[in-house]
Amino acid sequence: MNVRPLGGRGLLVALSVVGLILYFALDGLAADMFWNVYVLAVLGVAAAATRRLGRHRRAWQWIIAGNLCFLIGDATYSLLDFALGDDPYPSIADVFYLSGYPLLGVGLARLSRTGAAHRDRGAWVDAAIITLGGTALLWVLVMAPTAGDNAVPILDRVVALSYTGGDMILIAGLAVLSGRHLLRGRAFALLMASLVTMLVADVVYAVMSLGEDYTLGNPVDALWWTSYTLLALAVLDPQHADSPKPTATRPPGLTTARSMSLVAAAIVAPVALLVGVIDGETEHAAVLLIATIAIFVLVVGRLQLVAGELDASRRALEHEANHDALTGLANRTRFAHEIEGAAASPIHDVVVLYLDLDDFKTVNDLHGHPVGDAMLVEIADRLRTITPWPDHVARLGGDEFAVLLTGALARSAPSVADELLRIVREPVELPQTVVHPAASVGTASISGAGDVAELMRRADVAMYSAKRAGKDRWKSFEADVGDGAMTWLELRSDLPLAHERDQLTLEFQPVVSVEDGRTVSLEALVRWDHPVHGRIGPDRFIPIAEESRLIDDIGRWVVRAALRAAASAPATDVDISVNVSPRQLEHGGFVDDLRNELTESGFDPGRFIIEVTESSTIDDVDHVAKVLGDIRRLGVRVALDDLGAGFASLRHLGSLPIDIVKLDRSFMRRPMRERDLLPGLVELIRALKLVPVIEGVETPAHHALVRELGVPLAQGYHYGRPVPFDLAWRSLAHQRLVPAGPDRLPIG
Ligand code: C2E
Ligand code: CA
Ligand code: CA
Question: How far apart are CA 575 and CA 611, in angstroms?
Fold first, then answer.
């Protein structure tokens, strides 16, 4: 037979019901014996079951020990009853009974103490209210009549009152337990049921005893019987008896059930008082009045706690709405608020630092998102040390952060920005790996920016400029990006016209063979001839173009203009290169446009080179690699530009489909010590079968260094500045008179 669905607990319930019927069928000593054996068996089972428990084992053992005292009391009572043939009250049995309550109390206290996830003071106040209300009820029903009954011997009265004391322990335990939300599910319900049953039995018994109505075998015995059984059932539910890991992280607050029991408990004393007054009975008035006042005070305290809880949760909600979940920093909305507040105060200088981590995507790709998240949290913690105002540091999303500087901090923004870069650069040690972060930072000041949005945009643009300049550095919008002669806003609003009204021109700068100085290629560099402000360099307007999608239009124009110019020139074998922003590659269509332009111009793709800046924000390396591959399939070569400006994507060297590597011009200007890197780098490039080109050769000393390194190709003011096409071509014509050297840029 399959007994699984019934299980041990089902069996116990069945035994309990059958046993109870049997108990009432039996008589005298037999009934007593049967009672004691049953209770002993039930408690034995419960005690054995506690061995399967973990965190709450001791608590349950105390509770069972308390019940065991009741059993010993029962047995002693039976024994005395049998031996004396009379109701043995009070007797030694009562000592056992009474000692059970404190043990029970200890168990309940332990059960409610362990595993509390939070300090829920409200629950304690609730428990106090319920205990007080219950005590008032006990007082009216049992205690006062007992205490005042002069016919009963004094010892009897003391013992009877002690029982009500025990019941107060029960009520308090129940109240605390129910408030703490500790044991959820069945075990909780069963334990509560066991305690309530016992309490009801106690009170009924006490009331009956007053009238000497109780004898053994009274129906009230069924309540105690059931109480024992319920306790065993509770312990036999190990999963629930033990598991109550507090699920709520916040106090549960005033639930309906809680409020109802509080109302009930709170009205007991005043109602009893009222009833007494109506009946003209005023003997309890003083006690009930005190209880009423005490409960009243507690209720007021409880209301205050509720108000406090509401306030706390309102503040928690507000914090959630205004802060980033991962780092706890202010979010964009909150940050904008802070800026507005700072800007409104007349004495405040306001500077925003806009920070974007360099190559964060690589960290995510390489180590996974948990590591990326851990790194963001660490960076956030470091940024917090910059300013004493918590909400002056924000996470704007992804790997972008911002810091608001006011007052003295704002006035020393440059050193703060230096410091910020320094602390970001500290290695992040994570359980699995060490990450070396770096960031590009843009700063902008509120003066002249007008509103918050413009201020943020300026800081963003300055940050972008820092990226372009080689990452791991900061740029000031005011000092490096915008400038006095022409405001940023003017520049940005005029730029679309630059393209439409033919204000863009190209200059060409030679790349030469180091060996014999012959020009092997010309790099096209764009300029903007502004009708009012004169010539503007690409470093100033390309970032604006990149920020809007204007870069696509300008980029297309550059390719077309360079190809047309080169194709119209008299036959020569020099190559032509143009710069392409990685952002142009992000969107489809670049390769198609390039193919069309090559066809239309008739220029040999084998003599065309696309330069992609290494130091720009390449967000999606895989995608860029794919587009570069497509470009090379057209027969066009690809140069990785400005290598070494940030050293960030040295890693890309081996993986990107490229032909040429241009070493950043900053190498030439670096102190000797840092140039030590150059030979190794050149070797690496050669080992990868790529052609190295060195930039920024300004002096004969530079030239000598390049020779020493054995780099075949170089570019710089030492060989020639960027000049208009005609001029560049004239010097080429001059060069044609000299026989060609071996070092032209290899094709393919
Ligand atoms: P780049 O690609 O590294 O271009 C070389 C830059 O270095 C040019 O500045 C050039 O004038 C400068 N230069 C050449 N030789 C020397 C030297 O010996 N010493 C020093 N200090 N500088 C030298 P330019 O023309 O201002 O261009 C700046 C940057 O703007 C370029 O850097 C390139 O990244 C970008 N750029 C230029 N034209 C375009 C374009 O048509 N499209 C895109 N997307 N970017 C462009
Ligand atoms: Ca270039
Ligand atoms: Ca370059």
Answer: 12
State whether the beta carbon of 643 lies less than 6 angstroms from ligand 1.
no
**Residue 156: how many other CB atoms lie within 10 Å:** 16
Q: Tell whether pTM > 0.85.
A: no
Give the C-alpha separation, 304 to 316, whole Å.
Answer: 18
**Residues, Cβ < 5 Å to ion ligand 3:** 641-642, 662, 695
Q: Which is more confident, 69 or 274? A: 69
Counting beta carbons within 10 angstroms of the beta carbon of residue 278, is it exposed (0 to 12), middle (13 to 18) or buried (19 or more)? exposed
* Confidence label for 484 from pLDDT (cuts 50, 70 and 90): very low
Which token pair is 175? 């109240």
Is the CB of 641 inside a 6 Å radius of any atom of ligand 1? yes
7 lines ligand 1 (CB under 6 A): no
- DSSP-based three-state secondary structure for 387: coil
State pLDDT tens for residues 136-194. Answer: 888 887 888 877 778 878 888 888 888 888 988 888 888 887 766 555 667 888 888 99
- Surrounding ion ligand 2 within 5 Å at CB are 579, 611, 641
Q: If we measure between CA atoms, which residue out of 696, 721, 685, 647 comes closest to residue 706? A: 696
Of 170, 141, 174, 168, the C-alpha closest to 261 is 174
* CA distance to 10, 426, 698, per residue, from 3 (Å): 9, 65, 94
